[in-house]
Predict the 3D structure of the following.
Amino acid sequence: MINKFKFPKRISFRTRLFIVMIGMLVIAGLMILGTTTIQYESQRENYHLGRLTRKEIQIKRHIDYLSSKHDLSKKSVNYWKKYSSDFEKINSIHNVQYSLFTIDGDPIFIYHSPLEIVANNYRLGADLLKKIRASKTGSYIEHYKSEIDNFHASYNILRDQLNNPYAILFFPYFEDVSFSENELNTFIENLYQIYVLLLIGVILIAYFLSRFVTRSLETIKVRMGQMRLEKKNEKIYLKNATREINSLIVSYNKMVDDLADSAEKLAKTERQQAWQEMARQVAHEIKNPLTPMRLTIQSFQKQFDPNDPENKQKLKDFSSLLIQQIDTMSDVAEAFSDFASLPKPKMKKADLVEVTKMAVSIFDKKHIIFSSDKSQIFHKLDKTQWIRIITNIVQNALQSVPKERNPIIGVQLSTETDKTVLSITDNGDGIPDDIRDKIFEPKFTTKTSGMGLGLGIVKKIIESHKGSIEYISKNRKGTTFTITLPNFGD
């Protein structure tokens, strides 16, 4: 059983070109959108970090001034508290909130609501202190983003005039992102509107451009689809074709000329092959009856006994077989005159056992073993063609046995409810594996002489009787051909 595989429908060149152009625009738009967003984020980050640094410098200067003025560098937290009013004014002067911690992270002044980073008793954690102290510049900035807090946290180690650290400045900077986000959203919205207009324009351009580019290809495609070997094909002539399309058209027109020459040569070759095949068929059909006739005469000469009381019956059978073979050659000559490859079977009810015995009787009896499960098996068949089937297969079986081996050919008839089976078994060398698929081909043969048409014609005759033929072969052990005929009743 042959599975029909359906290939997926291929996308046309026009569709591909259209998709590529639209895809390029989409990719370009996404790249512009991504680049713009990244650029905006970078500028926004730089802007806020710059503001944070400027504010931080102003607060540091003010605190350094107060620390120097009141000599607070190495004083306790309680001593700092005496001047809390001065440090609290920094909030209003600079409009910021800040906090001061000791070098160990303990709070000095807290001027902001609790934040995530200092919410635990307003004390800086040990890990955070390590990061601050590890900074080479004495400054550490960390960004905090959570559901509660979202701000830049700046930590600066404050130093006195002798460069000794005396406090840590904590300055939280909360970004005002509303303006930048609104600006970015406005820009993206404008870009989106422009991009939609560009997309519509590119779709129209891509549609007409793809039609223009593929119009010539479509013409070539239609002509190539109409190309036939048995008719005269038209050439293509296009004006203003591109160099590539023109090269394709030139190749197509050359192919049309070559195809016309090939069709003419093929027609001539087919006519010659038809006559040669007919000659081979006729030669084989005439030669095929001559072989059993020759064997029958030789066998009759060897077995003839003047004193045998059954001479009349044997002479009758001998004459009947010769007449049948002569009729076969007459049918072949008549078929050739009508240009028919094979004579049509003349189906008549006959005893299959009797006809098969008659066919094998022309061979040496010591090499043939015939058996049947019934004494008579009636079947509708062409007796002449059935004899040709038997003689052809038996003759091939004898030729397959090597000279050093005694040939034994078994011919067995058996009946079943709906069919009759004929098996012909030999003890030859068998059929090689590499040619088993070819033995029923009309022109195939492994012999150095002959037409190689025997088994091919045998199969055609059996099929004309609505039957089938198959075989089983084993190397060096022999081959069994099995012919099956359906039983259609009387």
